[in-house]
Amino acid sequence: MSSPHDTGTRTEDRAGDGRxxxxxxxAAVLTRHQxxxxxxxxxxxxxxxxxxxxxxxxxxxxxxxxxxxxxxxALAVVVGAVVxxxxxxxxxxxxxxxRAATDRFVTALVTIAFVVALLPLVSVVWTTVxxxxxxxxxxxxxxxxYNVIGEGGGAYHAIMGxxxxxxxxxxxxxxxxxxxxxxxxxxxxxxxxxxxITFLVDVMTGIPSIVAGLFSLALFTLLFGPGLRIGIMGxxxxxxxxxxxxxxxxxxxLRIVPARLRESSYALGVPxxxxxxxxxxxxxxxxxxxxxxxxxARVMGETAPLxxxxxxxxxxxxxxxxxxxxxxxxxxxxxxxxxxxxxxxFIDRAWTSALLLILFVMVLNVGARVLARALAPKTR
Amino acid sequence: MSRQIDxxxxxxxxxxxxxxxxxxxxxxxxxxxxxxGPSGCGKSTFLRSLxxxxxVIPGARVEGKVVLDGQDLYGPGVDPVAVRRSxxxxxxxxxxxxxxxxxxxxxxxxxxxxKRLKRSEADAVVEHSLRGANLWKEVQDRLxxxxxxxxxxQQQRLCIARAIAVQPQxxxxxxxxxxxxxxxxxxxxxxxxxLKKEYTIVIVTHNMQQASxxxxxxxxxxxxxxxxxxxxxxxxxTDTIFSNPSVKATxxxxxxxxx
Lengths: 380, 259
Fold this sequence. Notes:
The complex is a heterodimer.
Chain A: H1 2-17, H2 25-33, H3 38-41, H4 50-68, H5 73-96, H6 98-132, H7 138-142, H8 156-188, H9 192-206, H10 209-224, H11 231-255, H12 259-267, H13 272-300, H14 304-309, H15 328-337, H16 343-375
Helix pairs in contact in A: 4-5, 5-6, 6-16, 8-9, 8-11, 8-13, 8-15, 9-11, 10-11, 11-13, 12-13, 13-16, 15-16
Chain B: E1 5-14, E2 17-27, E3 32-36, H1 43-49, E4 60-68, E5 71-72, H2 80-86, E6 87-90, H3 102-111, H4 119-132, H5 136-139, H6 152-165, E7 170-174, H7 182-195, E8 200-204, H8 208-214, E9 217-223, E10 230-237, H9 238-243, H10 248-254
Parallel strand pairs in B: 2-10, 3-8, 3-9, 6-7, 7-8
Antiparallel strand pairs in B: 1-2, 1-4, 4-5, 9-10
Helix pairs in contact in B: 3-6, 4-6, 6-7
């Protein structure tokens, strides 16, 4: 009962003032070799709510400026932020010392940068949701614009068009992109061809999407004559944008598969192609799947290349090889650029289409994570 | 199943760099041959040339002969994939396939080669190989778990099970215990003693106690300096190498006086 208590007291003494009774030789040795006691380097710290208080002060200052003077809101916000950060850093310097104050200053800067980066995103989501909810109804998902002149109608034809055209684009891009990446990582090595391919993929990553659309238009015009507008033209245009993304994603995933896995497969007498198919690809499957899904999300909202290749139609068309198709981005574009009467009905449909596109991209991103987790190699 | 390997005048290159020069050695069947020597002396390179794993590295090639039971492994028309099926290999770091269960890891050599097996045959191969690798008792009730979830020593024994499941004639081991603790090391050394009844084993090791404990014959590789090729200095019965070697460099190395 008493012994643990005694030990505790002694420990407290040592930590407390760094000195113990001089007649204890062990303690004396310990003290001599100890670095400056931890307790001495400790200091008071700002309360936990200090950051929130500083932020509140900044908001207050900005609000007061707007209310009392006639400065622009943006300037008021900047002044408020500067005042808040300054107060925070000065308080920290007085209470906590210089090093902590620097830390607080950088923390404040990073936090502000984060908020600034987040603002447009929140604004876009807010605007789209608030304006898009007006037509987020059953009819929007089940009806096309066939025979609709004013209010009512829906984007069923455009939803289907987007799904079909991006679906076909995925079917074209994933095999080409994956095989290209396999060549680059497993076969090409550092040879001239793979250097050329890498260079071209880099260039393709940067081409403007309208160029992809014009490429597809020109290609189909050359093959089948002018004036053609069919879904597959849009898929080809999207593939041009998607292939480099897929190549990059798959390439990176294949490169992080450890060489020792390939070697142990070779050592079992497995030929190279089977090693790639059965060891390398499954090991990288998780990353490849999420890379592909993100590539789909990236091209799904493309407007310009689809505008010039698939055109627009008011009725539902499931056949990508014949006739024009509607897709959500182009549908939204025409609704807002050529409104009829009443105009609000057209504007509402455009916003709901935009909202739906954001939802698609979100679902795809979440799906990519789920897929990646499901395919990832497990250890238990 | 176990075969003799005769190596004659083997030069091993990385591109134009001669890494190992003029090795001639005889590897006896049903025995353990240990290769020792300082880092960079080419013993691992030599080991990898015995099942044509060497040429996986771009630019790597060999000159000379490696004859397994009368068949030159580097002869014209010999398929390196076929060579690796009869000369198995265990690596320094345990590397079970992360996407596969313990069961599938053992069968990897067959499954990956698209060989169809009946369930009963597959079960028999798995049990026989895991027993052979002294791992059966530890994993028999969790064969469907990922191989990557085992401890390092168990993973290494899983890799040995995987290597012997394809019934090779020779088993090459490249520092199989250097990433393992003493207890797992002991387990693997015991296992080697068992395996040599059926297989020809060649092991590269930095641990001289290990070489003297497990091997029947020992080869000492050395290198004269950076950029010079490694050479086989001496090869003899393990007892002779460690007690009464005929070359001074060997004696210096095994007794810790080198450099």
